[in-house]
Amino acid sequence: MIRRLLARLIPGRKTHAPRIYGPADHPVRSDQVSRGARMVTEKLHEAGFRAFVVGGAVRDLLLGQTPKDFDIATDATPEQVKPLFRRAYVIGRRFRLVHVHMGAEVLEVSTFRAAQTGDDATDEHGRLLSDNVYGTQEGDAARRDFTINALYFDPQSEEIWDYVGGVTDIRARRLKLIGAPVTRFREDPVRMLRAVRLAAKGGLAIDPKTAAPIPKLASLIQNVPPARLFDEMQKLLLSGHATETLASLRAHGLSHGLLPLLDVILEQPLGTKFIEVALAGTDTRVREGRPVSPAFLFATLLWHEVLQQWNGAKARGDKPIPALFDAMDRVLGTQAERIAIPRRFEATIKEIWALQPRFEQRAGSRPFRLLEHERFRAAYDFLALRAESGEVAQDLADWWTRFQDAGEAERTAMLRPDEAPKKGRRSRGRGRKRRAEAGGLDGAPPADSGEPG
Ligand code: ATP
Ligand code: MG
Fold first, then answer.
1. Residue 110 Cα, ligand 1 centroid: separation in angstroms?
2. Top CATH class, 15-172
3. Ligand 1 pocket check: which of 53, 175, 194, 239 to mutate, most ligand atoms within 8 Å of Cβ?
4. pTM for the whole thing?
5. Which CATH architecture does the domain made up of 269-437 adopt?
6. CA-to-CA distance for 61 and 27, rounded, in angstroms?
């Protein structure tokens, strides 16, 4: 009653009934959602609440893809949700939601949130600073980004509730923002990146009205906090469609000078081929369901930066190995800060880099020790990329491919005594050498060993 009155008084606040698609009208079945999602929604229904699987999972199922996780939306408040489950934890300070644990699964249960009214707090570019008021299901649909992300699936009735025309858009394979594109992109510029990523991943065309304002608004991305941009870039790079997505970002004017990480990827004078090969390899792995390491990927993205500085230092006569460690520190210190690579990746990135010169030393016991290094596999994969992109000889990578699988006798026969460190240059660093080789990360050859290629 009051709501209807308000709807009449405030323009744009009208309530609409959703279009409800029954099980005969769409292909999603309840056995396609996880057991946890079925149990959580059922429990909420029994307690008299509405509860749906929402967002990316419904989109992915309608597109015939496998969802990563299942988010639940409900009209119950967190305080009403929590007592219904044995292991449920209210999290978040600004906007509270509930994590419900069901076996190994964690379900995120959020209360319907209100759509923006137009007078919410924004920064001077229109970016929303908060989004945290409970609301109706219709409002909850309207505050989401794209129509195909605003669909609600009820696992018990197998109905899909659609307030924004998302089912029609999925059928037309169209990605469309809800509401006025310029306003919605200003509220949250990350939506521009999401548009490009979700379109590439789902094989969708971006609706012309959604795409049109992107080039003009692209620079707003610079106001987004770096950590959030990093998260989005990581999703993009690990989507299994990185190569296409990057091409599309470029086509929509979203590459140059906006995202430091993208500049690193797209504007490399030297490393283009290397990064192309790396991204194509990552895409293949993701699509085949094999694991990929973000640290490995970031090591590839920054490698040519390191290489450039390292080569510069060597040309000035610096000793190769200290020069490499120096270059690594400098690149991670400056470049990684702009890109906001989380610290937890740094150790692995450095190890992968630091092991590279050791592949050039195939004499004595060194190759055997390298084989046993904890990061050998990642470092070897990295070497293979360097070879494929033409940076080092393919022979070298092939040698290591063979060496790994060879028997003891063949391994010994494969050794290259000519690559042993030169005598007479190793007097000063012996103590250091022992220490370095005993340690993990510092396992690069000592400062005075032979020149790595
Ligand atoms: P993926 O998980 O593949 O990145 P997703 O759509 O599930 O895709 P999430 O970040 O998990 O992305 O978000 C879940 C849901 O929250 C989305 O489907 C969408 O409805 C909503 N959402 C996410 N980001 C935004 C945003 N920037 N603006 C408005 N709604 C958003
Ligand atoms: Mg998701």
1. 13
2. alpha beta
3. 194
4. 0.82
5. Orthogonal Bundle (1.10)
6. 8
